[in-house]
Amino acid sequence: MKKRTLTIVTVLTIAFYVAVLVGWHLYVPHSDLKESLPGADNRPAGLARKADEVKVGEFFMKYDAAAPEGMNGIWSEFRGAERNNIVKASETIQTTSDYPELWSFDTGEGHAAPVVYQGRVYVLDYDETLLSDMLRCFSLQTGEELWRRWYRVPLKRNHGFSRTIPAVANGRIVSIGPSGHVMCCDATTGDLKWTKDLQKEYDMEVPFWYTGQCPHIDGDEVVLVPAGKDTLMMGCDLETGNVKWATPNTIGLKMSHSSVMPMEIAGIRTFVYVGVGGVCGISAEASNRGKLLWHTNKWQPSVVAPSPLRLSSNRIFLVAGYGNGGALLQVSGSGSQLTATILDAYKSDKGLSSEQQTPILYNDMIISILPKDGGGNRSKLVCYSPNDLHKPLWTSAQDERFGLGPYLVITDKLFALSEDGELFVYQLGKGGMKLIKRQSIMEGVDAWGPLAYADGRLIVRDAHRVKCLKID
């Protein structure tokens, strides 16, 4: 009897669950459901694109913030308008009290520093939520965001994302994103003017830690170095983006993290570039603009971040991190008969070197921060004579170390930011300097982005935040 009852219960249980499963499959909760077709939800097309289908500058947002007034200072590009990281300020820089913070804003992880143009601050950023490069514009007066223009380009974090500094002149702002996307906008309104995809158009190879090259505006041209299969360097019309001249890449250089530097060498205006594979000089003269004047592959580190530094009418200082150290290049000859020779080359612990920041030449002193493999003076601020790259004239104290932090000369003072967010101010003298002020600015994490200055305001950043200090 018990066995029969158990069998009946088992059968009924199985039947019940079978009925539930059948009913669940047959039941339609909403009979009016329609097929979901691509585009029917009006989702922006950019969200459905493949990683390499980038529409540069397609999105824009303007904010309800007051436009800046009465501010005329300009910090126009990487290392300033003269590309030397030296400011001749009309304001009196004070060093007797702490510098107040005027404003700050958060960023995606990166090291891209700002430029300033008549009261507006521009910085390239990356938004991980939207997977987008963003050119953002803020008021120098208030720190309020005025507008942003962005485009979707999925990236993975690799010691941050954005590294490049825009260039601004003649009412236009030009940026290069981590994957080589170039965007030119109206500096006031943010209106998109023209774009380029250096990877697709010039077969550019993106460096390992993304693009670090900063654009250079020379008159009415933007100078770019795609270092692609066919084109080494080119000049684009600032207004239209049309290519006005291009240098064939006959020497096979690839893009480094270094930026092109204009300088007069052997009596010729020259664009000097250190790429992966060597160093070259390209004519910046109107008569033969874009012509390859000289090059050498006798100094070719696999990673180069600092840019070349002009020491004299025919000598250039070269430097790279990861133990590569420094080198002295000399250009000889005249006219079309120019040759480049490496006169001296040494490892990081044997003389003046730098891993990330480009040294400053000021009053016959080369100012730098030695890399972490730079021997006993590693991470210290140092000065060397251009005539002796092996023995320092001066070094900072044992407790004044900066890692990969940036530095900037304002009038006769050097401002240096340690990578953990402490600001040091030195009075510059002949053959050395004296510490006159230090102040903790932020709980810095990788404060590597170059400094910027305009209208009595110093702009600093770490990997996640930009701050503005009043220093006059």
Please describe what this structure looks like.
- The structure is a single chain.
- The protein has 472 residues and is mainly beta.
- It contains two helices and 35 strands.
- It has a six-stranded antiparallel β-sheet with strand order 1-8-7-6-5-2, with no helix packed on it. The chain has a five-stranded mixed β-sheet with strand order 3-29-30-31-32, with no helix packed on it.
- It is globular.
- The relative contact order is 0.12.
- Mean pLDDT is 91; it is low at 33-47.
Specify the number of helices. Answer: 2
Number of strands: 35
Structural class: mainly beta
Shape: globular
Major beta-sheet overview: 6 strands, antiparallel
Major beta sheet, strand line-up = 1-8-7-6-5-2
Task: Detail the topology: elements first, then pairings.
Blueprint: H1 2-26, E1 59-62, E2 74-75, E3 86-87, E4 101-106, E5 115-117, E6 120-127, E7 132-139, E8 145-152, E9 167-169, E10 172-176, E11 181-186, E12 192-197, H2 198-202, E13 216-218, E14 221-224, E15 231-237, E16 243-248, E17 261-265, E18 268-275, E19 278-283, E20 292-296, E21 309-310, E22 315-320, E23 325-334, E24 337-346, E25 360-362, E26 365-369, E27 381-384, E28 394-395, E29 407-410, E30 413-417, E31 422-429, E32 432-440, E33 452-454, E34 457-461, E35 465-470
Parallel strand pairs: 3-29
Antiparallel strand pairs: 1-8, 2-5, 4-35, 5-6, 6-7, 7-8, 9-10, 10-11, 11-12, 13-14, 14-15, 15-16, 17-18, 18-19, 19-20, 21-22, 22-23, 23-24, 25-26, 26-27, 27-28, 29-30, 30-31, 31-32, 33-34, 34-35
